[in-house]
Design brief:
alpha/beta; Rossmann fold; Hect, E3 ligase catalytic domain fold; 3 domains; 5-stranded mixed β-sheet; 3-stranded mixed β-sheet; 15 helices; 16% strand
Amino acid sequence: MIEGLHKNSQLAVYVRKSRKDEDDSENTLTKHKQQLSEFLEKEGFQNTQWFEEVSSADSINKRPIFVGLLSMIEAGAFEAVVVVAWDRLTRGSQIDSGRVAETLKDSDTLVLTPTKVYDLNNESDEMMSEFESVIARSEYRAIKRRLQNGKITAVKNGKHVNGRAPFPYKYDRNDKKIKIDNEKKKVYDLILNLYLEKHKGTREIAVTLNRKGYTPPSNKPNAIWRKCQVRNLLRSEFTLGYVQYRKTKRVGNQTLLRDPKEMITTKGEHTPVKTKEQHELILKRMAQQERISPRAKKGTHILSGLLVCGVCGGGLTFRKQKKNPKTAKTDDYYIYVRKCMNPINNGKDFCKANKTCKQEVVLDYVYKSMLRHKEEVLDKQKFEEQQEERESGQELINVQERIVEETKESIERLDDLYIDGHINKSKYEDRKSTLQGKIYEAMKEIERIEKDHDLINRVTKEDRLKKWESVDIEELFSDEMGVKEKNEILKLLIEKIEYKREGDNMEIEITYY
């Protein structure tokens, strides 16, 4: 028996299949489980809980089972963690290695392998674990390089290496090749026909496909066709017969296009489903149809990102129209609010609400509304009265928030009871489900109270006063300030502007922060 432990010690057993095990994916977990079972039997341990995972060691956050285990270790649920080797815990970044080591150290949890015991509160064991982490990271980088080099070689040979077969193809497991899926090909041909022959837009094509009940590429439950999917399929080079690698890269939470020099594009071994002429026509038409410039997407119009449809709640867009078609001036135009064309009914129809109108009509209403609202905000007495009403609602919210906190504490106590073996799994899951339902009901009640008492405003009284005292509404709506600057200031003060128009009847409702 290992020193400091006994046969009833609480042990967590963690097994993970990593990338380097891919060639032996069927047997890796079984081999590791057998190896650890023999070790536990030999040492006489009887109180164990197993955790199994198939995941890369690239990042802890991509390993949900291990994240859960780490939380339990942090809470002191186990006296030791059993693994085949130290690198089963982590061989990712130094930050991940440090996080694991500190958790084990602070909770005084041992790490057991069939060949060694690690006590991170022992200086020599800590040094050894750090050394093995460095070796593991080096090995992982080497594996990653081999995988990338393998993918590059495969792409150069015309093979697809980026996940599942793109629409409208399928993967033939017998021939191990990408082949055309005839049913999906019918849908793709319809898309080409609607776009190139019928001159339909991507949004209208998506609606048509949804009406006909065609399954979208994602295959997810309740998924619908969207215009971005149609657009991506139309301009895809894979359907032209090419394969690509290193087309995009991750920067933080964003996916960005790589420099063309970094991309690898070669002729694929799969059969194209469109001609080069069709592809060029698609790109040409898309370039002609680019209705909104990159500047417009970044707030070129004063109400960009603020104006929404009062019927469906979707965002509204704008269009420019020259005041005099014969003039050569590019800055002499009207700006109109477009009719709403957001998809509704699970993508089967367009909203088509709201008759178009000039932006200046909406701006005039916003200007007058902001003048009135600023006066109300700066009227201290009136603001205090409104604040008292909010505070009365806040008391009701506080009651529900206490219920949420107390119930969360109850769940934590329940977790402890289950970990300590005082209740079985069935009772644990039933009780936890009931408590989680109680939290859900309390959160829904908070949402209702906020709505009833106008408590959606999330800024403090002082912040609100400061914002409205600093804004000069006359200057904001003058020609002295740039459009982008106006848009940014309005977004600090206004959450949304709902626009609804039926015939000559127009309704505009502004929600302020």
